[in-house]
Amino acid sequence: MTLPPFHLAFPVDDLAAARRFYGEAMGCAEGRSSDEWIDFDFHGHQIVAHLAPGQAGDRASNHVDGHGVPVPHFGLVLGMAEWEALANRLRAAGTDFVIEPTIRFRGQPGEQATMFLRDPAGNALEFKAFADIGQLFASQAPAPR
């Protein structure tokens, strides 16, 4: 199945910091830009950092497998090797993780590798991977902890 690329526009308070984070630290190619926004190629998806001071960051958190998950957040489901390479790249860059790279729901339906971090504007991102991609939409809810 071929998935269409998604488009996500999100607020940032500093375009130069967004360019460094998404372009350099995350390795996203830059597309079009202006004095108010920058397009990035986010693994084939179009994300756009829009200058909107004071509008970025999470507003809540939900308890998931022993961690406070920031809401809202966005990210990608990567292959396990890609996820591990990204985790290593981010660690080497000195990233301050909200939730360190870990395995969530271990031994349960939907077991996944996950990590959460923030961009310089405070937007939360999650990157995850599954040893069994068939578990992406596992229908059995994880047991409460």
From TrEMBL:
Entry-linked InterPro entries: Glyas_Bleomycin-R_OHBP_Dase, Glyas_Fos-R_dOase_dom, VOC_core
Family annotation (PROSITE patterns): VOC (PS51819)
Sequence ranges assigned to domain VOC in this UniProt record: 4-130
CDD domains assigned: VOC_like (cd08357)
Classification via PANTHER family: PTHR39434, VOC DOMAIN-CONTAINING PROTEIN (PTHR39434:SF1)
Protein name: VOC domain-containing protein
